[in-house]
Amino acid sequence: MLIGTPRRPVPRPTDRLRPLVRWGLNHALPKRVIAGAARKGDLHAQLIVATSTSSEAPLALFERIRAEGPLQRSKFAFVTASLPVVREVLGNADVRAGVEIANGSGPLGRLGAWAAETTPIGPLTPPSLLVTEPPDHTRMRKLVTRVFTVKAVNGLRERTEQIADDLLDSLASAAARPGAGQVDLVEAYCALLPVTVIAEVLGVPEADRGKILEFGTGAAPSLDLGLSWSEFRAVESALSRFEEWLTDHIELKRREPGDDLLSKLVAARDEDGVALTDAELKATAGLVLAAGFETTVNLLGNGIALLHDHPDQLALLRREPARWPSAVEEVLRLDPPVLLTGRTVVRDTEIAGVQVPRGAVVTVLLAAANRDPDVFTDPDTFDVTRPNAAEHVSFSGGRHFCLGAALARMEGEVGLRRLFDRYPDLRLQPGARRRDTRILRGFATLPATLA
């Protein structure tokens, strides 16, 4: 069970309506409209429906959308599966991060703004770096970059290797228990490696790390569209409890600062002596914590499955271990942890030679762009020797390029290489299951025998 007693005032009757309105405007209503458009043949709507009903990547739909041209206009948004166009969108100053279903100045916009006043801090709510734009985004990112440096990440490699080795020892013990026979690699390895690393980075006590895993799992569907009422309530509950825990954790770092990066972030000041506000600290720390393990869990699980299913590629890596960094890039390209992302045009602009009006939504299909045949030879083939594998857009791009990319790459390399070096006869067993989340893509379970 998640623990923590809410300290917020008892909500007024009108406040109790706000979550219902948020759900209705951002999930229930769009879901109905999208379903209708999908039945009429709208490819973007069909893509949303497909990702909502299946955990498999909709590769056939990717190709149909690609065939319509570099930038297709659907009923709801402009959509692109082209890698060059994805990069153009992500780097366009006239396009901001995030999508607001109920925006504008009309009745629905005003109702949406009223309902949003009590939204818990999450990855898609300001002041999260994912949806904040310059000048605030520039100021916040600069402060975070000062303490979340590549040098700091490189210093974590040895500790990450130690954590991986300890977890692999535990895997052997678990598999040796009478009646066990197999282990779930997601639960016992893929999840624990990145959550342990990021918890140490941010000074999270060991006793709280189980809660972090639960918070992250509970909040992961917050990126998705079309949640049921029960799913939506569960997500907002997880976000609210996470926010309460973060408030206490940040206060602890103020009283008792350590050498961890969160303590440094709490103390960080820009050139004018301005620190992050409490809301910015919570949004940033929460994003770093969640993104620091949620997507890496997927990277590790997806990588294990790909390497297991392509023994020729794994054998090549054993002969030529210097190729492991390239192998991680190829995993990220072929089966990325994030399927797609959305952007909103703030000024009339031109993208891929198409005039795109202010207020339009642009959906960039990261997973489809990573298979762009104009960029990648034999794009559906898993090839750890691919010379341009790192040209993928799995870490987004432009000013919103993932701050944790270096950490994820390092953890992916260490985690995958250590696992297959220790257990060269590892075999995945029937029962593997993908996560229910639509935007975040990975495995919920990966049953395996170690020998």
From TrEMBL:
Q: Which residues cross the membrane?
A: none
Please cite one Gene Ontology biological process associated with this protein: cholesterol catabolic process
User: Does this entry carry the keyword Heme?
Assistant: yes
Gene3D superfamilies according to UniProt? Cytochrome P450 (1.10.630.10)
Q: What is the protein's name according to its record?
A: Cytochrome P450
Q: Please report which protein family the annotation says this sequence is part of.
A: Belongs to the cytochrome P450 family.
Question: Could you cite one Gene Ontology molecular function of this protein?
Answer: steroid hydroxylase activity
The organism sits in which domain of life? Bacteria
- Keywords, ordered alphabetically: Heme, Iron, Metal-binding, Monooxygenase, Oxidoreductase
Q: What Pfam families does the annotation carry?
A: p450 (PF00067)
